[in-house]
């Protein structure tokens, strides 16, 4: 991995509640650097000491995150999104729009491009990086036409023998009345079915928040990977708490019970690989996180390229059919 880039300036960062000690130390370092630049004082040793203390603090905090804290990290506004991954990892990306039935859905982005020099189809939910983009992309919550666009592009990939790479980052499919009227459940179910019947490599990466069937619609792959601090669950902690306890304040308890962290899901056999994030999470060093994901995808694609079309489909189907079954013997 190339050297990690410098994190964005502190004034531009958003700190989570449990990151208060980190924010305080970074504030002190910024003050000393400003003082050093406006005076003749040599305080490099003090800055170095504080930087070492900061690195130790970040490592300590991020080594023991609770499931609820991981959910907060997975939703961090500075975390790289699907278009960030495509922009850095994919050459000659050509977006394709529309489901050929109703409309285009900006919450679901997809198209053709070259990953590591190989033509492929890219898909993913896009949350948006600022208020305007979030409204445009509906906060990463696709409507039925988004999932039907995904089906169209996956079938296109199957027809021309192109691998499919999906980036999962959604709180869930859009729950509005208009989405239900146009067949949201059917669109998601059909997307899962298309995933399972493809005869080309399908690699899925949960890069942030993998919520409910809206995430699974893109994640029934030959290889399912998750970033270290991403989450993947049948329902959000808040939604689970409101149903089971009728109390949204129980979200932390729900997060613990849902087993939504990458470590838990790998142990349960739901995902295949956990991709390590830079120290302090992907939101502190987005480019390093994206590069790590790129290497993991490239390795998985090289492995799957040795399988023929029928073997790819059979491997994927058997993998999901085996989930939840007791081990033989």
H/E element sequence: HHHHEEEHHEHHEHEEHHHEHH
Count all strands and give the number. 8
Task: Enumerate how many helices there are, as a single number.
Answer: 14
The amount of helix comes to 40-55%
Q: Give the uncertain stretches in residue-range form.
A: 1-8
End-to-end CA span: 42 Å
CATH architecture of the largest domain: Alpha-Beta Complex
Name of the CATH class of the largest domain = Alpha Beta
Strand content: 15-25%
How many domains make up the coordinates?
2
Structural class of the helices, strands and pairings? Answer: alpha/beta
Reported for the largest beta sheet, the result is: 8 strands, mixed
Q: Average pLDDT value? A: 91
Shape: globular
Please name the fourth-level CATH homologous superfamily of the largest domain: 2-enoyl-CoA Hydratase, Chain A, domain 1
Task: Write the topology of this structure.
Blueprint (H helix, E strand, L loop, with lengths): L19 H19 L5 H19 L4 H8 L7 H8 E6 L12 E8 L2 E8 L5 H6 L7 H17 L3 E7 L6 H5 L2 H14 L4 E10 H5 L6 E5 L3 E3 L3 H8 L6 H8 L3 H6 L5 E3 L10 H19 L4 H14 L7
Parallel strand pairs: 3-4, 4-5, 5-6, 5-7, 6-8
Antiparallel strand pairs: 1-2, 2-3
Helix pairs in contact: 1-2, 4-13, 6-8, 10-11
Walk me through the structure:
The chain folds into two domains: 14-64; 71-322, 2-enoyl-CoA Hydratase, Chain A, domain 1 (Alpha-Beta Complex), CATH 3.90.226.10. 47% of the residues lie in helices and 15% in strands. The protein contains 14 helices and eight strands. Strands 1, 2, 3, 4, 5, 6, 7 and 8 form an eight-stranded mixed β-sheet that branches. Strand 5 (202-211), helix 9 (212-216) and strand 6 form a beta-alpha-beta unit. The relative contact order is 0.13.
